[in-house]
Amino acid sequence: MITWLDPHDPFPPVERALGPGSDAPGLLAASRELSAQRLLLAYRQGIFPWYAEGQPVLWWSTDPRMVLPPQALRVSSTFRKTLKRVLRDPDWEVRVDDDFIAVMQACAETPRDGQHGTWITEDIIAAYGALHRNGLAHCVETWYQGERAGGLYGVALGRMFYGESMFARRTDASKIALAALCAFLGNHGVAMIDCQQETDHLASLGASPIPRAEFAAHIRIATRQPDIVPWGFDKTVLQRWTQAQP
């Protein structure tokens, strides 16, 4: 039985989330409202929203938790060449926080295998947009010849980044944005990007599962660290990060 949350109710302990034998492993609670304040409370406890249009807001805390250390992103020899081309070719740009809402909308419009519709509803866009205006959510965008070709967005608290979604309109465009994010976060001492749920695609990028208890212990410390200010893109940081990858 999951918990129904009224507006001022605290989240239950994450250990109460439904277990692996249930129909919805990791489901913890449900609510009617979705606000920026509720999102912050959730992320600080290792909880995230995921639901479809017409459903109540469903709150999850999965066990295990999929995470990507910035240095673990897999960089093949082919992708390394792509990054070098992006860094030297003026047709390619990497921008940070150019248009957060446009990135969210592009993620919402991207078809996903086995998924009908999108969980990035207007309420989701409004709540994360409020976090962005307060400097707590960011996007990284890949541009090609003056058009947005790919990108990603997520929530940043202290020295913790919670990845939410990504999209690509050109080959490797979202992965370029992810490499830029990993270089930036690694340069600021971020040890872990939250990827939420296990998927083959995330595993192919270098993400791996860790126990929820380990994840919760990490974010208790990481989210209390000073926020990263300012956010931006520095080619030299990505160059050094690329050279350091095995």
From TrEMBL:
<keyword id="KW-0808">Transferase</keyword>
<comment type="function">
    <text>Functions in the N-end rule pathway of protein degradation where it conjugates Leu, Phe and, less efficiently, Met from aminoacyl-tRNAs to the N-termini of proteins containing an N-terminal arginine or lysine.</text>
</comment>
<dbReference type="GO" id="GO:0030163">
    <property type="term" value="P:protein catabolic process"/>
</dbReference>
<protein>
    <recommendedName>
        <fullName>Leucyl/phenylalanyl-tRNA--protein transferase</fullName>
        <ecNumber>2.3.2.6</ecNumber>
    </recommendedName>
</protein>
<dbReference type="GO" id="GO:0005737">
    <property type="term" value="C:cytoplasm"/>
</dbReference>
<dbReference type="InterPro" id="IPR042221">
    <property type="entry name" value="Leu/Phe-tRNA_Trfase_N"/>
</dbReference>
<keyword id="KW-0012">Acyltransferase</keyword>
<comment type="similarity">
    <text>Belongs to the L/F-transferase family.</text>
</comment>
<dbReference type="InterPro" id="IPR004616">
    <property type="entry name" value="Leu/Phe-tRNA_Trfase"/>
</dbReference>
<keyword id="KW-0963">Cytoplasm</keyword>
<dbReference type="InterPro" id="IPR042203">
    <property type="entry name" value="Leu/Phe-tRNA_Trfase_C"/>
</dbReference>
<dbReference type="Pfam" id="PF03588">
    <property type="entry name" value="Leu_Phe_trans"/>
</dbReference>
<dbReference type="GO" id="GO:0008914">
    <property type="term" value="F:leucyl-tRNA--protein transferase activity"/>
</dbReference>
<dbReference type="InterPro" id="IPR016181">
    <property type="entry name" value="Acyl_CoA_acyltransferase"/>
</dbReference>
